[in-house]
Amino acid sequence: MEVLYKSTRSDSAPVTASQAILKGLSDDGGLFVPQQIPALDKSPEELAEMSYQEVAYEVMKLLLTDFTEEELKNCINNAYDAKFDTEEIAPLVEAEGAYYLELFHGSTIAFKDMALSILPHLMITSARKNHMDKEIVILTATSGDTGKAALAGFAGVEGTRIIVFYPKNGVSPIQEKQMVTQKGDNTLVVGIHGNFDDAQTGVKQIFSDKELAAEMAEKGFQFSSANSINIGRLVPQICYYVYAYAKLLKEEKIASGEAVNVVVPTGNFGNILAAFYAKNMGLPIAKLICASNDNKVLYDFFSTGTYDRNREFMLTTSPSMDILISSNLERLIYRIAGNDADKNKALMTALNGQGRYEISYDMKQQLNDFYGNYATEDETADIIRSIYNDCGYVIDTHTAVAAAVYEKYKAETKDDTKTVIASTASPFKFTRSVMNAIDTKYDAMGDFELVDELSKLANVKVPGAIEEIRTAPVLHDKQCEVDEMKQVVRDFLNM
Ligand SMILES: *Cc1c(COP(=O)(O)O)cnc(C)c1O
Fold first, then answer.
1. Is the entire prediction scored with pTM above 0.85?
2. Residue 316 maps to which CATH number?
């Protein structure tokens, strides 16, 4: 069955998967969604016998239908290789009555690697398939983790350039150091004077600037996106939910057909949307538990049916979730609006204009698969400390938001369904916040002293990604105002 992709904002002609990956965002500003979601054609028992790479193929072949088997397998094998520090790629760790799906074993130690290690290969393959003769310019806004993962993926890839905008004062010290030490002539990293939403909005504006696009085309460039608005990032993220389920089955932690809950620390709504798609493909998932930090716009949305970004933007210890405009929610809104592009567009126009929208009663009824809650800064720190004290397992601040919300969910519902928690970053990426949560005595130590201390305390070797940046020279020190982003892009492309 061929799967085509259409925009959430108009009924313009659908495109193939490879075209959707190349474009990133639809010309009308909408996001590409699959016209139908195919069912898994292998049973969980069959999947349980497969490697990560094999499971990834079984999932991706159903959604990226214009890729040949050889193309897809090449992409998969080039992505999920020795860049990951474990052959399992995404190990499951049982702790405190839940299964932590560790998605941070790739080269930049955050879950973004799961998709961004394959996206460059999907993109280059897509370019070839569509006989594209232009250089691809990847434009990315990051709340800290996408930036480095995208840089690592695209650095040195022929036929591409990559520009990353991050909030200058909105990422962790380790995150910033990882990005500004990036090598590669085709890379540019810029700190903006604004928050993540400013960066994301700026990037979306550049994308939909028709004049600029025409000028770019003339000069031989075409924009694409490495953000989770690109379907080429969402599809690879579905794979690990399928893999986790198959693994639980293989290890006899669950019975055949038994449903599990999934808890996802959420920012842009990409990761949890991938879990929702997995459920739609037939994976036995019960509740999708959406965990937010103090920027709890999604919690409010799930409880009231009103999405309202008119509120203070909070800087938290889980910076990759400091987001008030969750882009991927649009794909869910479109879906619960009955795949009605006009209805969705009206809501998104309201979000752009008034910063809020309200969904209808009928739409809200379709959100029963989801449960939303949030964790405060204190609750986040408390759960890091208590899990460490109880069993010696150290989780990062984002994963801790999910763990804290899962506790609230259990207390509220008494639901004892087995549960997978998406563990989205290594604690080494947020060392200061993690160590402070465990004991305030660490406050006085330097960033890399803390790294060594964490290694001792958690009994985990310092990841290569951290060793790499200890002494690496800073190669990017550019900063700009939000309204200068377009000029920065022009300068980098000599336009
Ligand atoms: C990006 C990120 C998130 C949020 O994921 P979304 O797909 O944007 O919802 C959570 N945790 C970490 C560590 C991240 O890097």
1. yes
2. 3.40.50.1100
